Amino acid sequence: MESGKASKNYECGRQRIRNGRIVGGVNTYPGEYPWVVSIRLNGRHFCGGVLLNNKWILTAAHCVAGYIPRNFLVRLGAFDVRYPLEGTTVDIAVNKIVVHQNYSRPRPFANDIALLRLEQSVEYSDHIVAICLPPTGDPLNANFYEGFRGTVTGWGWLRDENNNSDKAEHATILQKVTLPIVSNEICTQWYHYKGKTIVVSSRQFCAGFEDGGKDACRGDSGGPMLMKNSTTNTYSVIGIVSAGIGCALPQLPGLYTRVNAYTDWITDRIARN
C-alpha cells in the first residue's frame, strides 16, 4: 500500500474542501473529512470506518466480527448519512473481512481492529480521499500520545440512551469533537474509581475530559480519531473508536485502539489480500 499518496492528485490526509456519536460535538461541513465512511448494515448506519486506499477500510473488529462480507455496504463521501448525494456519495459492497487474529469476543477490547476490502476500487474526489497511516510506534510505549488532542468524527448517538433527562438521539450529519488524550495510568485509575476493572494496554489509549461532557458514543464505533500534522497540513488516523462506558460521563473516557501499534499488521494484511 502506498502510504504517502492517495493517488497522483489526491494526497492522503489532505482536505480538498476548506471551510459517532459524538456527544458534545458540532456538525462538520461537506467534504471536511473525506476519508470517513459509514459502514451500513441492513440499509442503516452501523459503525464508522476510515478509507486507507482505494480498496480498503479500517474499522473496529467488534463492528464486523461474526458477520459475512455481504452483510455490509460502505458509504463513502457521506455527509448527511440519511441521503446519498448524486456526484459525491458512493455505496460499495464488501467482499472480504479481515479481523485481527488475536481478537476474540470474550475480551472485546483487545486487538479491536479489522479491515474491509471493497468489492471495487473507489475513485477519489473532493469528497473521497484516503487517510494517512501514522508512522509505526513502539507497541510498548503506552503513553505515546499523552498530552495531545485528537479529533473524533462519526454519526453515532448525540445523547446517551441511559441519560434519564434526554432521549437518545442519533446524528444524521457527520459530527466532530476534539478530545484530550489521557495517560493510560490515569485512565485506568479513573475506571477503577468508578468500579470498572478495565486495564488500558499499551496498544490502546483513552481520550476524554475528566468532567465528561464530550465523547464518542454508540454508532461511532470503528470510526477514526484523527491528528493533524501542522507541518504537512495533513491528517493521520491515530486511533479507532473501540469502547466506552456510557457516553461523556465523568472519569469514564473513551477507549481507542492505537493504530501506530498495528501499522505493520495493516500493511501486511493488505499486501496479502
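the 2nd protein, sequnce then structure:
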Amino acid sequence: MANKRVVLHDYFAVPDGGGRLALTLARNLDADLVHGFRKPEHPYFTGDTPGPREKTLASGNLPFPLLQLGLIQAFSRKTAFLSRYEVCVFSGNYSVLGAHQAGSARTVYYCHTPPRFLFEELELFTRMVPKWLRPAMRSYLAGYRGRYLRSVDAMDVVVANSQTVSRRIAQNLNLNAVVVHPPCDTSSFSWCEQGDFYLSTGRLDRLKRIDTIIASFRAMPDKKLAIVSTGPEEGRIRSLCEGARNIRFLGRVSDAELKALVGSCIATIYIPTDEDFGMSPVESMAAGKPVIGVREGGLLETVIEAETGILISPGAPADELIQAVCDMTPDRALSMRKACENRAREFDVAVFMNKMRGIIDG
C-alpha cells in the first residue's frame, strides 16, 4: 500500500460536519479513506476535485439496528490491513473499533463527541425501543460501550473538536484531549448584500430549537425569517410555519443557494442545545454576517459577544431571542462585518491542518 496514512470515518450518508472533516483530512494528508459505506452521489464526492483512494467495509442498505451491528463488526474484524500504515486517524463512533488492528501505527482519534447514547442519553435511547426489546438493547449497548472505551483508551492521542467536547471526554472517558476546532472553508463564503431577512440554518431536530425561532418571529410579524435545512422534525417545522407571511420555509437547498442566503441575510440565528461545536456560526461569520446564538456549548468558542454576534441565555428563552433580533438591526449587523470575517479566519482549513499535522507527526 503506497500511502502511509489512512483516515477512517464511520460512514457518509448525508452531508455533515464529521464527514466533511474526515474528507478534508484525507485530501490534505494525501491519505487513504476507509469508511463503513457512502451513499451514491454523495455531494462531498461529486465535482472535479479528485478524491482519496477509498475502501468500503460494510453495507449501508440495512435497517436499524442491523446497520449499527454491521458497522461494529466491520470496523472490529475487517481492518487488519491497518497495520500496514504508519498513521491511522479515526473519526466517529464506530471507526475507533479498528484501533486494535493498527499494530505499531500512530493512532489519533478525532472525537466529535463521545456517543451520547452510551452515556448521558443511555436511558432515553433505550426507551426508544419496545419494552420487550430493552433487555437486549441494554446488553448490546453495554458490549459496544466496553469495546468503545477500550479502543479510545488505546489511542496515542485523543483530539476534541471543542472545549465542550473535551469536558465530556474527561467526564465520560476519563481522558485528556487536545482541542482542535473543525475546519471551515472560509474562502467559499462571502458577503453578498445587506438583505432584509434573518436566516436559520440549523438542522430540523429537537436539539436545534427551531420551534423557538418560529414562535419568536410569529410574535414579530414585521421581521422576516428564512429557514433552510432538513431533518427528522421537518414535517412539524413546516406546519409551525403555516400562515406566517413573514416566514419562508425553504427546506433543503443547494450549497450555492445556501451560500447566497448566508451572504445576503441580516444575521443568522443558531440556538442549539449544548452544541458540540457548530459550524454554521463560523460559516455565517465567514460571510461577514453576525450570529444570534445561545450562551452554551460550542458557540462560546466561536461567537464573540457584541463583536461578532449576540448570545442569549442558556435555554434560549423566546423573550431574549425577540430582543436580540430587535437589537440586531441591519446597520448594527453591517458594522460587525469586518470583525466577523476576521474571526472566521481563525477556523480556516489551513489553521486546522497546521494543528493536526503537528499532532499527527508527533
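The chain has two domains: 5-183+348-360, 186-345. The CA atoms of residues 32 and 360 lie 15 Å apart.
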